[in-house]
């Protein structure tokens, strides 16, 4: 209960603020456990299919950059080769057209979700992603948007200005 | 004639004119699975109403993620104690209104109205957007949820201080955080995988 070591990804993002909000998080243990479960299912999948784990970290890094969340960016940058991380973070071409298409979709879904159309999904399909891959990529982008706001909100509750 | 998942992907006949508390349908842009093709893992996440829903049958293509998503949803919106459920649904409506998710806003505004008995106030939120003014407590919840849901988030310690001054507990504020965060997830799925349709009268 009083441990200050990170127990999950949101604790890790909160850093030294984690202990202050632990009682609030522990009031909803299933929310804590399954948020971590979703992270694990997305970043350590049984079978990544068309969206590799490296691509997943690159997508999460792009979301973190768009949402201006440095701790989250650090988390995913650490999982990537420097050049790839730099490209994903700075919205430059990565040299991989599939990843570039996924990052374009990441920008749309993170910053202007209501503008998504069925043509945007057709564009992903044109790069060889199938229906299941598109579902996974959508879950990934959407989940990271959840996770960063849970951490940002909890950080404010811990008393620190965002 | 049996409807196949391929038939479920189709042009929308009647688009909603705007934000509404009326029931809407949701039409997928890519193919859900058929229950007859579902694996054991997929069937396990398609219990009850989810088996009929094209949305959940589409998400069931990645069953491990769907299982965790549904469990997070249930914990945040149905867990005991903390923020009154009407205000959790109000928060879901604020985030959905900000993100432009007409379908999510219809479901959760209607729930918020049923739970609070304040359908007219909820309708003003849908009509006027997150700048609407209702009363001190709801305005403070709305402003915090909208600021946290923005990209990048722009919620501040001032939003939290205002809620605390109004007597909102930290456990309740944590529920607002999680309800807004969860709809930052849910809205993006519904907005990118399909679109709402007004049901046939």
Please write out the topology:
The complex is a heterodimer of chains A (162) and B (201).
Chain A: H1 9-14, H2 18-26, H3 29-43, H4 53-66, H5 70-77, H6 82-89, H7 97-111, H8 118-125, H9 131-157
Helix pairs in contact in A: 3-9, 4-5, 4-6, 4-7, 4-9, 7-9
Chain B: H1 5-8, E1 25-28, H2 40-44, H3 54-59, H4 63-78, H5 85-99, H6 102-116, H7 119-128, H8 136-149, H9 157-165, H10 170-193, E2 194-197
Antiparallel strand pairs in B: 1-2
Describe this entry's structure for a reader.
With 162 residues, chain A is mainly α. Chain A has one domain (9-157): AhpD-like. Chain A has 9 helices and no strands. Chain A has helices at 9-14, 18-26, 29-43, 53-66, 70-77, 82-89, 97-111, 118-125, 131-157. The model of chain A has no long low-confidence stretch (mean pLDDT 95). Chain B has 201 residues and is mostly helical. Chain B is built from 10 helices and 2 strands, in the order αβαααααααααβ. Chain B has a two-stranded antiparallel sheet. In chain B, α5 (85-99) crosses α10 and α6 runs antiparallel to α7. The radius of gyration of chain B is 18 Å and the shape is globular. Chains A and B meet through α2, α3, α7, α8 and α9 of A and α4, α9 and α10 of B. Chain B: Pfam families: CMD (PF02627). Chain B: This is Alkylhydroperoxidase domain protein. Chain B: Residues 63-126 form the Carboxymuconolactone decarboxylase-like domain. Chain B: InterPro entries: AhpD-like (IPR029032), AhpD_Avi7169 (IPR023923), AhpD_core (IPR004675), CMD-like (IPR003779), Uncharacterised_peroxidase-rel (IPR010195).
């Amino acid at each position: 209960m009083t441990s200050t070591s990170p127990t999950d990804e949101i604790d890790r993002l909160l850093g030294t603020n984690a202990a202050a909000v632990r009682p609030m998080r522990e009031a909803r243990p299933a929310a804590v456990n399954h948020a971590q479960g979703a992270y694990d299912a997305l970043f350590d999948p049984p079978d990544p299919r068309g969206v590799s784990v490296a691509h997943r970290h690159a997508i999460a890094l792009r979301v973190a950059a768009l949402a201006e969340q440095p701790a989250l960016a650090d988390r995913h940058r650490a999982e990537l080769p420097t050049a790839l991380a730099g490209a994903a973070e700075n919205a430059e071409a990565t040299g991989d057209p599939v990843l570039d298409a996924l990052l374009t979709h990441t920008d749309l879904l993170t910053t202007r979700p209501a503008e998504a159309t069925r043509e945007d999904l057709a564009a992903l399909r044109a790069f060889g992603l199938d229906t299941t891959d598109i579902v996974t990529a959508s879950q990934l982008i959407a989940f990271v948007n959840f996770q960063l706001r849970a951490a940002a909100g909890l950080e404010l509750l811990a008393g620190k200005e965002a | 004639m049996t409807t196949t998942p391929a038939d479920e992907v189709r042009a929308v006949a009647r688009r909603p004119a705007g934000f509404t508390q009326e029931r809407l349908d949701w039409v997928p842009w890519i193919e859900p699975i058929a229950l007859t093709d579902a694996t054991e893992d997929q069937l396990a996440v398609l219990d009850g109403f989810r088996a009929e829903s094209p949305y959940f049958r589409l998400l069931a293509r990645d069953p491990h993620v769907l299982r965790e998503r549904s469990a997070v949803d249930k914990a945040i919106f149905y867990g005991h104690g903390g923020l009154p459920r009407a205000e959790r649904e109000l928060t879901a409506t604020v985030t959905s209104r900000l993100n432009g998710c007409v379908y999510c806003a219809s479901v959760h505004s209607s729930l918020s109205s049923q739970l609070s008995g304040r359908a007219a106030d909820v309708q003003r939120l849908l009509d006027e957007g997150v700048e609407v003014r209702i009363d001190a407590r709801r305005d403070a919840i709305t402003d915090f949820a909208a600021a946290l849901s923005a990209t990048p988030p722009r919620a501040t310690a001032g939003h939290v201080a205002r809620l605390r001054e109004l007597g909102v507990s930290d456990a309740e504020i944590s529920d607002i955080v999680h309800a807004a965060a969860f709809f930052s997830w849910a809205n993006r799925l519904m907005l990118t995988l399909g679109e709402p349709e007004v049901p046939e009268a």
